[in-house]
Amino acid sequence: MGYGFRKHAAYWAAAAAGAFTNTVFGVLRAYVLIALWRSRPGLGGYDVTDAVTYCFLTQAYIGPMQVFGGGLELPQRIRSGDIALDLVRPASLQLWCLSEDLGRAIYLFLARSVPPTIAGALLFGIVTPGDAGTWAAFAASFLLGVVVSFGWRYLVALASCWVLDDRGLSVMSMVLTTFFSGLMLPLVLFPGWLGTLARSLPWAAMVQVPADVYLGKTGVAGALAFQGFWALTLLGLGALATTAARRKVVIQGG
Length: 254
Prior knowledge:
Layout: H1 2-9, H2 12-39, H3 48-61, H4 74-80, H5 83-88, H6 93-123, H7 132-158, H8 167-180, H9 192-200, H10 208-215, H11 220-247
């Protein structure tokens, strides 16, 4: 975990640029949501302040949750052939990657999540939980969201063992995550069966659920159970995929 933190902390300028970009887009999104909620008060059970808070929370999740994909070096190591060494080491490849990814998430939370949230609070005013229990529940939900995000990205990255080019998978993953996580709009606004489906998929555990826990819009126990289910499911699938990768690895040029 410390290794992942130190490695990403070396690129402080990139983190600062990311925080600035997240803030600018957060301001633009906030004005769009303010206009929407003023024309439709109470939409989705949120008021205007809830909507603005949701906006800046989701902007803050982009870095730690790696919403746009990536964050893992597995595809590059598969293409170079270094994955063969990783798979024969006594340490678990999946747990090693998870530990590094948690370090990355902690650093990006400090460098890319806190500044946009502070800017949103100063410019618009956001909801702040009033008790320690809500903060603790949010911290647990946020951590589970990072684990779910890792579980999904690990599967996408490890799929490079069976394909020659992972770019198509990466684009597909980015589209699915962006749409079904709640990054663009709260999933509570999705109508009918689409909303029900979206809220039951693992991507909801990365953005929508932690935001609702922070805002107090969902039951904590149910939210954490939902995230825990998807975290265990994706980690389990990742473990199976790692075992399969040891038996068949397709490496370009080797």
